[in-house]
Design a protein that fits this description.
InterPro entries: Porin_dom_sf, Porin_O/P. By secondary structure, this protein is mainly beta. The protein is about 15% helix and about 45% strand.
């Protein structure tokens, strides 16, 4: 710095002989200002170098000597503090993939100061291009079940079966902060079935208010468990509200879904046709579905959840059969169902439901109820279905329930002490009562089930589940009619990437 200042002074002397002996006050002031600017620049560079050395030193400290941060995924890029303050995401969940990130999370992944191009969060890596613009992640889930039923008055229901609840492969990714995509195919029935397949755009309206818009083959946003993925449900099968109060087209449809997010909730509106098929000779059905959830109480260990949803569906001329056979005691026993009996001549359906629950510490509770009116032709009155459920759980290991306040559903947990690191994992005890009523039809049945379960999460993406179910059915049509009850014991091993 001294040499640089001296050079400036010598140049001034050479250029202006009159000032060679006595520089003016103005010239000296200019030199002082130039010197101060150089000092400020050098200080800024020194601060940056010291910051990088501090990060490198922290990374070199053994894990046992670093401050504990059990709710942050290993090797996940550090999010800047200003971005963390704006991310409405629960720390007990694994970081979301590229297609489910908020605007702040997507932007933080691009501007991550660590310079990493790969991050590991839940089983498979997330790849980033060197400039942070492109993001890509493989996806997959393997859910293998075994089930045995006994105690029924009919041997056709006393079965022991195995099955793949899900066997999926897929991918997701993004370009920049705003564009994202996802696709998955399922092979669980030994055939290819396209499930989620969409592209989308996300942005911010103002601080604390974000939105995204998805277009493609979309999963319903409908109810608490109806909006929870099959790899995240607290029981082996969703409640009767999720499986019975549903559009006739099922859980998926091709269309568009705008979603709005604020700090304490979200709202969505979905307009779709039929699910992926090869039928183009007749018009698709049309389904309009909306949902809103709100967390009026939301603290570090306490959440209150309120939600409501509804849909209206106009059936395709090629899909007028409304017969339902709904799971009540386990998915993999085809003889154990609550049935409507044959029901033809449907023109549309309308359904709606409410959600109420939340968690405090390791304990969670959720109540759901729904009603579905099926419109029939030839002037016949609507057929009404009714269902409700009450579910709860307790993590005896002290982990928080994997509740996602952004979506109002369950997600993949971030286990505090994974078994692969020498810990016990996360152990959860669960209980549920559910009821289903199709008796508005002369041929319609009814049923209920009580379930006790235990979930053992080895880490954030591997778990074992065990459910013991006592069920009761009273069908008026089908192979087994009249009152019947029994037990089903089901188990699952699940890996989600």
């Amino acid at each position: 710095m001294i040499l640089r200042t001296g050079s400036a002074l010598l140049a001034l002397v050479i250029a202006t002989p009159a000032l060679a002996q006595v520089p003016s006050q103005g010239d000296l002031a200019d030199l002082v200002r130039a010197q101060a600017a150089e000092i400020a620049t050098l200080k800024a560079r020194l601060d940056r170098l010291e910051g990088q050395q501090a990060v490198a030193s922290a990374a070199a400290v053994p894990a046992e000597r670093q401050p504990a941060a059990p709710q942050v995924a290993q090797n996940t890029p550090v999010t800047p503090p200003e971005a963390r303050r704006t991310i409405p995401f629960a720390p007990q969940l694994v970081p979301p993939g590229p297609a489910e990130r908020s605007v702040a999370q997507a932007d933080a992944a691009r501007t991550n100061p660590s310079g990493l191009t790969t991050e590991w969060g839940s089983g498979l890596p997330v790849f980033h291009s060197a400039d942070g613009v492109y993001t890509f992640k493989p996806r997959g889930r393997i859910l293998a079940d075994v089930s045995t039923s006994f105690g029924s008055k009919s041997d056709t229901r006393n079965l022991t079966t195995t099955g793949m609840r899900a066997l999926r492969l897929g991918l997701e990714g993004g370009v920049g902060t705003h564009f994202f995509y996802q696709m998955e195919a399922d092979f669980s029935e030994n055939e290819v079935d396209v499930v989620t397949a969409f592209m989308g755009w996300r942005d911010r309206i103002r601080p604390g208010l974000d939105y995204d818009v998805r277009a493609g083959h979309l999963f319903n946003d409908r109810g608490f468990e109806g909006s929870t993925g099959s790899d995240s449900t607290p029981f082996l099968e969703r409640t009767t509200v999720a499986t019975a109060i549903i559009p006739q087209r099922g859980f998926y449809g091709i269309g568009i879904m705008p979603r709005l997010f604020w700090k304490t909730g979200h709202a969505s509106l979905t307009v779709t046709g039929d699910r992926v098929d090869g039928t183009q000779a007749v018009s698709d059905g049309r389904t309009v579905l909306g949902r809103v959830h709100w967390n009026p109480i939301k603290t570090a260990d306490t959440v209150l959840h309120l939600g409501a949803w509804g849909f209206d569906e106009s059936l395709s001329p090629a899909a007028t059969v409304l017969t339902r056979n709904t799971v009540i005691g386990g998915r993999f026993n085809g003889g154990l169902r609550v049935s409507t009996g044959p029901l033809l001549g449907g023109t549309g359906t309308t359904g709606y439901g409410v959600e109420f629950g939340g968690y405090r510490g390791p304990v969670w509770l959720m109540a759901e109820a729904g009603r579905r009116n099926a419109r029939l032709d030839a002037g016949r009155p609507d057929f009404t279905s009714k269902a409700w459920s009450l579910s709860g759980g307790f993590f005896i290991t002290g982990d928080l329930p994997p509740y996602n306040p952004r979506l109002g559903s369950f997600g993949q947990p971030k286990v505090l002490r994974p078994t692969f690191d020498g810990g016990p994992g996360a152990i959860e005890l669960t209980a549920r009562y559910e009821n289903l009523d199709y008796t508005d039809l002369v041929t319609g049945g009814e049923g209920w089930a009580g379930t006790l379960g235990v979930n053992w999460y080895l880490n954030s993406f591997t778990r074992f589940q065990l459910n013991a179910i006592h069920w009761n059915t009273d069908n008026r049509a089908g192979a087994v009619t009249g009152s019947d009850d029994g037990e089903t014991v089901s188990a699952r091993v699940a890996v989600t990437f």
